Amino acid sequence: MDKHLHGITPAPSTKGKLEKTGQSGQLSEAFIVEPKDLVPFQRAWEWQRHWQNKMLEGTCTYPAVWLLQHHDCYTLGRGASEFNLNFSPEKPPSDLFRIDRGGEVTYHLPGQLVVYLVLDLHRYKTDLNWYLRQLELLVKDVLEDLGLNGECIEGLTGVWLNGSKVASIGIGCRRWVTQHGIALNVNCDLKGFSQIVPCGLKNHSVGRLDSYLPGLSVFDVQPLMRRNLAKRFCLKLIEDVSPPDFFGL
């Protein structure tokens, strides 16, 4: 998804292994938030920015991750071209946001599992290329648990199944504290993708997981994502607890 990072060769699969700096395999506690209802994009974006600011200010050292679904909306990354919209920005078919991540336009909607991560990369490796590759590997870990063989394409960011892109990845980062993350198409309606050139990639089809596993839902995939995320980033996830001031926006 991140246009500025196209041209980086994806790393080979290393399921269950994480290249670390300064971690020594120790688990870090992290808050995980998994709303049951659809979350408006603006609200989730505010949560991330709020938490990123707290980490940058030093008032909180805990990472936070979100697993959620959005109402229909389109998002444009920093510097994304409006030529990749098949509609007028003044009259979008769904809400349209220009946001602080890299990459081009993408589409969020129910049936897509969105993973947002606010992590301090000083705990791992201060290298955004490395981080993007870890997010790809995380998706491939989840697909492997489902019996699916996810693939990366040299020079591009994201994960494909049989030539169709099922996971888009776009990140933001300030002083090595991250925002944004992964959008994995599970059982969403793909029609809205026809309104854009997804991730600015022409001639690349978009797919979803339930085309390969009929009946699959986000709620089936979510525990697999949670488990693999904890494993890959050496996190002890604190569930069902709202961090202090988390909603104090």
Give the SSE layout.
Blueprint (H helix, E strand, L loop, with lengths): L27 E6 L7 H17 L6 E5 L4 E4 L18 E4 L6 E4 L3 E7 L9 H18 L13 E3 L2 E11 L2 E9 L19 E2 L11 H15 L2 E4 L11
Parallel strand pairs: 1-2, 1-11, 3-4, 8-10
Antiparallel strand pairs: 2-6, 3-5, 6-9, 7-8, 8-9
Give a structural overview:
The protein is α/β, with parallel strands linked by helices and 249 residues long. It has a single domain, classed as Bira Bifunctional Protein, Domain 2 (BirA Bifunctional Protein, domain 2). It is 20% helix and 24% strand. It is built from 3 helices and 11 strands, in the order βαβββββαββββαβ. Strands 1, 2, 6, 7, 8, 9, 10 and 11 form an 8-stranded mixed beta sheet that branches. It has a 3-stranded mixed beta sheet with strand order 4-3-5, with no helix packed on it. α2 (128-145) packs across α3 (218-232). The radius of gyration is 17 Å and the shape is globular. The relative contact order is 0.23. Mean pLDDT is 87; it is low at 1-23.
The shape is: globular
Average predicted confidence as pLDDT: 87
* CATH topology (fold) name: BirA Bifunctional Protein, domain 2
Give the termini separation.
29 Å
> Helix fraction?
10-25%
Helices, by number, come to 3
Q: What distinguishing features does this structure have?
A:
eight-stranded mixed sheet; alpha/beta; 249 residues; three-stranded mixed sheet; 11 strands; disordered N terminus; BirA Bifunctional Protein, domain 2
